[in-house]
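ok so i was messing around last nite and threw this chain in just to see what happens. nothing serious, just curious
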Amino acid sequence: MKEFAPYWEKRLSRPVTLMEVCGTHTVNLFRFGLRSLFPSSLTLLSGPGCPVCVMPPEEVDFLIRAAENPRVLVATFGDLLRVPGRRGSLKEARAKGAQIQVIYSPLEAVELAAQNPEKWVVLAGVGFETTAPAQAIALKEAQKRGLRNFLFFSSLRLMPPALRALLSDPKTRLDGLILPGHVSTVIGARPYEFIPREFGLPGVITGFSPQDILEGIHLLLQMITGGRAAIEIQYQRVVRPEGNPWGQKVMEEVFEPVSGRWRGLGEIPGSKLGLREEFRDFEAESRLGLKVEPLAENPACRCGQILRGQLTPPECPLFGKACTPESPFGPCMVSSEGACAAYFRFKGEV
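result:
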């Protein structure tokens, strides 16, 4: 590993900028001290690969409004609790009496609905293609059991449309992409083929160990210095080119792509998963009579620019001062996969 920097220091004739799309890659780059092994000409930027970070504020506010109804119980994963909307956070709403239950599996929300027939149980469906199959299974189980009080709020997003939107932005200046291993386990490599075809950039689907990450970067740098653009799979022990057909099938049975807003990236056609007609009775918005109204992001927070790779967290004027993990302004400082949280936690490695 120590030879990585000297090897590439000799071979890189110009500065190179890569983006690690996945938040887990961001965290592990710091956790394992890998940045200290990079040549001076190599820069890594964080991307839009943290599910709660890209969730726009109106979706957080929707869940808070739903939970304020005494007949509603919101079931959510713990990493969403402290994400700020414009009305505060779910954690703050719970402290004021809203019924919010932390779950570890979407099927727990189905059980909560079965155990609380007098309440609407709203599953907050947050994540990318990685978690969408599990959410789909929960919906199919609720349908099978006839649980009319089970509701679903989708904040599920699709990675390839977001990458196309990001790369289409003239402000984006990248030489290659470290592509997410978890998402690619489900979707495979083929949905990324537009990246070299349309944008002339290489991408490598990469695992999460130190060796995986360095191998992924090594493959990217080989393609860049060789003038080749393609999608390669470093994470071959887990990811196949075709992905997981069963996971894709169960997603397609329950969900369909719809337009969706992303924090920092705006409205992206076909980038969100909505419920198909056969499962529309579980839709929380229509059943609760609540609308998701677009809200402006906090202008003081630079999370959106960080998710686009236009800023690094230390370049945000709030970073480490007004914005810390204890008092976050934005989700990038809240989530365990957020770039700001990683930079803050491992600031000695920056």
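not much to say yet. The mean pLDDT is 94.
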